[in-house]
Design brief:
Layout lengths: L3 E4 L5 H13 L6 E6 L10 E8 L5 E8 L4 H7 L1 H25 L13 E5 L6 E5 L6 E3 L8 H24 L1 H9 L4 H6 L2 H17 L3 H7 L6 H9 L2 H5 L2 E2 L9 E6 L2 E7 L7 E2 L1 H12 L2 H24 L5 H4 L2 H16 L3 H9 L5 H12 L3
Parallel strand pairs: 1-2
Antiparallel strand pairs: 2-3, 3-4, 4-6, 5-6, 7-9, 8-11, 9-10
Helix pairs in contact: 4-5, 4-11, 4-12, 7-8, 9-14, 11-14
């Protein structure tokens, strides 16, 4: 192997060989390759994310992000590792470039074009799956603190990206239905997979009990009781609806703080980009909206801005569709959006304790902070 791998490397021989061949195609030869861990404990749950730094000389380097699949058989089965890595390849290599090409042909302004990391390649032979992407840190993107709730302005940035991503699904669906059907049929449904796993059901029971114990009032204990343990049934029921299929798009599927990067100016997020499409599947737009809103914002902010957010999202969806002579009210009528919000709300509210609990379990935060975070998320106290 022509390259010298140093640093925090968990790469297997096939993964190193694949990365070496890609770098050789880019003109690198016998360079030193430094591997660094990205983020901290708790940031990445399914993939092992690393930064690859290819040294060119003493002052310059080229960087990539690599996502490495777990090798433990139990974890691989639990997370359907090979399938979700294939999901991400489909989105980055096929779907997003199609969206971008359609926007260019429609003369969508540059500042409104869909943003995504450049896809450099993927090796999908189990158990050595690896995906190689552009390092967005080089373009000024950073990750926000996953333990902090996001602001109203930050939510609106994300809603703009959702509106663009969702609108392009509708454009593809209405103008090139066969391509849309082909792509969405190849995406693995992680929700359906976990629904069949007794392990996840046991985890939900434990997490639900943890959340219940945070609250003193029986009023809130009773509201939470059964919400997590029934979550899969509620979500599966909604996704199985034929009405859902009629207004479906391909969703991002896992839009929480760590899967959205931001450009910061004057200490405020000014631009964002969606990352991590391993859980993408066919759904309706509110699936992304509610998952992000319930998992990334606190009660007080939701109470004040929720309806404003929904209105803003819908206006941005219509704006993006207009470039293709489509209207939001035709492809996803406002009355249907409101119906879906009501139908999905209870199921997605139930998902709120899940990432919150997992996030904090990976941190060194005290139990007092954990309790405070749960209460702020649910009650605003």
């Amino acid at each position: 192997m022509a390259f010298e791998f140093v640093g925090d490397s968990d790469l297997s021989v096939p993964q190193k060989q694949f990365l070496s061949e890609l770098l050789q195609k880019y003109g690198f030869d016998k360079n030193k390759i430094l591997i660094e861990t990205v983020g901290k404990s708790g940031d990445n749950y399914i993939s092992n994310v690393k930064r690859v730094i290819v040294e060119r000389n003493s002052n310059k380097s080229t960087k990539f992000i690599i996502k490495i699949a777990p090798t433990n058989d139990f974890t691989r089965d639990l997370t359907a590792a090979n399938a979700i890595f294939q999901n991400e390849q489909i989105i980055y290599e096929e779907l997003l470039p199609i969206f971008h090409k359609m926007q260019i042909e429609a003369r969508v302004p540059k500042e409104e074009l869909i943003k995504f990391a450049k896809f450099h390649g993927a090796y999908l032979k189990a158990p050595h799956e690896i995906i190689i992407l552009e390092d967005l840190q080089e373009s000024g993107y950073v990750m926000l603190d996953r333990l902090k709730f996001i602001t109203n302005d930050t939510v609106k940035l994300i809603l703009e990206d959702f509106a663009t991503f969702h609108s392009m699904s509708y454009v593809l669906k209405h103008k090139q239905l066969k391509i849309f059907e082909n792509l969405k049929s190849r995406l693995f449904n992680f929700l359906a997979h976990t629904y069949k796993k007794d392990f996840w059901k046991k985890v939900l029971i434990i997490l639900e009990n943890d959340v219940i114990n945070v609250f003193e009032s029986n009023k809130y204990k009773n509201v939470i009781k059964g919400s997590l343990t029934d979550m899969y049934e509620k979500l599966m029921e909604v996704h199985a609806s034929e009405n859902t299929k009629a207004f479906s798009i391909i969703e991002q599927g896992d839009a929480w703080t760590n899967n959205i990067l931001f450009k910061i100016k004057d200490q405020k997020p000014m631009e964002c980009i969606l990352i991590d499409y391993q859980l993408s599947k066919e759904s309706v737009p509110v699936s992304d909206l509610l998952y992000m809103i319930f998992n990334c914002t606190d009660y007080a902010t939701r109470q004040k801005h929720y309806h404003e957010w929904i209105n803003y999202y819908y206006s941005q969806l219509d704006k993006s569709l207009n470039y293709f002579k489509l209207k939001a009210n035709d492809v996803y009528p406002r009355y249907r959006l409101e119906i879906d919000l009501k139908r999905y709300a209870k199921a997605f509210l139930a998902t709120t304790p899940l990432p919150t609990s997992v996030n904090l379990s990976f941190s060194s935060s005290t139990q007092k902070y954990k309790n405070k975070n749960f209460k702020k998320c649910f009650l605003g106290t």
